[in-house]
Predict the 3D structure of the following.
Amino acid sequence: MAAKTSVPDDLQRLIRYLPESDQEERDRAGEAARSFVDGLPAGALASLPPLTRSRLWLTAHRRWDEAVALVRFERDNPGAFHVRGLLSPVLEVPGVAPGILPKEVAGLSDKEIPLVTRLTEMVWENGVLVLRGYAHVLNVPVPGRPRLPVLAWLTRKGSRKRVPLKTVHRREPLATLHSKQGLHCYDGSGFEIVVDPARLRSGAGWEPGTWSLTLAVWAFGRARRGGLAAGEVGTAGHAHARGLDDRTLWVSGFTKKRLEFRVEPLRAELRGHRREGDDLVLDLSAPVDRLVVSRTEDGTEVETEHPVDGTSARVPLDALRVSTGATRELRVRTVTGRDRSPVTVLDGSVTGAHPVGDDREISVGASAEGRLVLHDRVRQPVVEALRWEQGMLHLSGTYTGPSRDRVLVLRHGERFEEIRVPVTIGDGRFEAVIDPDHQDFFGALLPLRQGRWYLSLRAADRWDHHEDVPVKISPALIGSLPLRHAGKHRGYTVDRRFHDRVFLAPDSMLTLEEKGAYRQRLLREEYLRARREEPLREAVLYTSFTGSQFSDSPRAVYEELARRGVDVEHVWTVRDGQVALPEGVTGVDYSSREWYEALARYRYIVTNVKMPDWFLRREGQTVVQTWHGTPLKKIGADLLGTPKANRAYIANLPHMSRQWDFLVSPNTFSTPIMRNAFSCEAEILESGYPRNDVFHAPDRDVRAKRVRQALGLPEGKRVVLYAPTWRDDQRYGGKRFKLDLQIDLPALREELGEDHVLLFRKHPKVLDSIPGAGQGFVWDVTKYPDIADLYLIADVLVTDYSSAFFDFAHSGRPMLFYTYDLEHYRDTLRGFYFDLGEKAPGPLLKTSEELIAALKDLDGIVEEYRERYEEFVRDFCDPSDGRATVRVVDRMLNGRG
């Protein structure tokens, strides 16, 4: 097998930044591309993705205008391109005239424009199976009803028998959303197919067999064929079984994630089970010779045989106890003569579990395909009843595990955040009530964030999630899913994944007409443009960390405007409903139609993050860029010449700054850095950060007391605030960063727990739950709205390279720097503007032992670093008079050009 062709990283980087390159760099890119292309074996260039090989060819042939046009097109449309041609599909890119690229580069193979299919729903209605989904050819848009419909048919494996199926067109916006691109609309690719099992009968009954489903879409002069891909959750993501009659079973299943149907003989069905002494008795629908129970041990099938008395099989429970740790599956088959067949479970109500030992059980359950399976597992909660009542989700079921000190944990499937919910356990059952619209986050009631929240039971004193017991759903309830509810703020769905793992999924705050890259492009190019023609409104749009908080300098600006009684409407950007707002402030959903209108029509915009590249400030608009930190780590144009430099972003910095009326600088140190790093063409107002006025506020002690009460902190304990930044090389992918936890939290609790509490605030980019949170020593304050409030109650700050220490220096309280990876972070990940070891107003610590010792000797640390702290304040906290917000608002209201 030939090795896969890959383009060297250095060459990819040269081509990626062609639009920003000078002629010398382009010549170097051309030479490298020519050398690479000439060295490829025959056919290797064509094996690269279409846009990749096109970039290479244009660069190698020094077609700079076309190469730059292609790179810019890719930036705007990642993962998508245009296709032209009647019979022979060819890549088409704006700015690259037809015929420039040779056929071997521009021509597209079947694999490069495959048939894309997905099942979105599979349900039985009036005795027939209804399939809903979509099918389209990649990069061939289907905005409306196609000229030719989707074709579908069943083929029996091992024969030529084919059964055509009728397809009905339906609009399916999910096709466009799932494509994750903004160039093409696939809304018209939806279909509904009805599969009537009666059409597969042969004579008087059904013959066993497997039927594959094929879809076909007409494109480029012929039918593009493929199977129907499985969905991810619910009915579209799981196999299921249904009895056609007393002797025949229908299984809708997936092979290589493609839907197929099987007609099988139904030999024996489970009718019940019970425990008699030390045996498990299984009651079957028909007599069999014997029962075989099998499991896999080190890749080998291990079987045990058990006698059957008529229709009752007796299996010693000890024979089923094959694990003391992880769940182990045991498969069950009947033997009659030479026939070996699985036991079928069609009635989910006959499943259950039998306790064995101190904490385990033998469960009697059903696989997704309706097969009887037994499990040796830790005792698990199984939901047997679900209902929505007055906005609350009520769930109850069986659970014979420990009943004391247990909590129900909702754990986010992508962010790994956790929420604890009370649970009642007793008499072999459990009950819980979840209020998804009103979760208490430090006194603010917010809805659950979008995504899947998986349910588990946990001991209340458990340090982390590793021994959580998953909440499963009874097979008897699967048919009632999905269970939907229209909540106060958003919709909610209860469904399943991994066959029987139950989850609660809040919907997006956006409508389908607002979600996804394609819809967002339309909102920018059509809706936003139209709204820009309308008059400006006397309103302020505030944005703090892209709508994730009511905090920071935008909050201070709002409070000053409100104090002055300025006659403007106050509107706050809110992402995913996760921000609580005070009375008098209206929320607008980030990326919604209303948000675009606010950008187009509001007189004032106050933000602490960059504006979108496509934003253009209108005449009469005032844009205040407060930014969000004093730079220790190099940023923007100062990264040029390093591997971290994003030259496209850097080249766009002058345009970005032209959209601001002024940029707020926190101190004299930052002003020249901001001017250069942002290539800033706007005014820079060296006012100090409005967010730091809190350290000088007359009511700061009252505010601090209010914060302590909201958190519920115990009196008399020293408050340690730990606020680290993220690590560029610790990520799940994209911009999803891992929690790089290097502090030994159990050791800190052991040494300091008696008279300290640790407030742990993750960076907003960091996912994962914090071990030990909620156990009395570690407090997860990541969701607390504004870190400025936490500064007021912190006796000491522990941080690393976060800009938090520049802000906290205004307090005059001690700081410790837990810099366990200083050399790697400074020299490999990010450069620094100054030597942290020389200027830090506290010690640099590398181990948990050193951190513990420093916290125990805080008075000594304060004395040792007194002079350096004072010098740091002089260098980085000027101005610091509590009037930064006044200066910013004065400039905002009176200095508008």
Remarks:
- The mean pLDDT is 95.
- The radius of gyration is 32 Å.
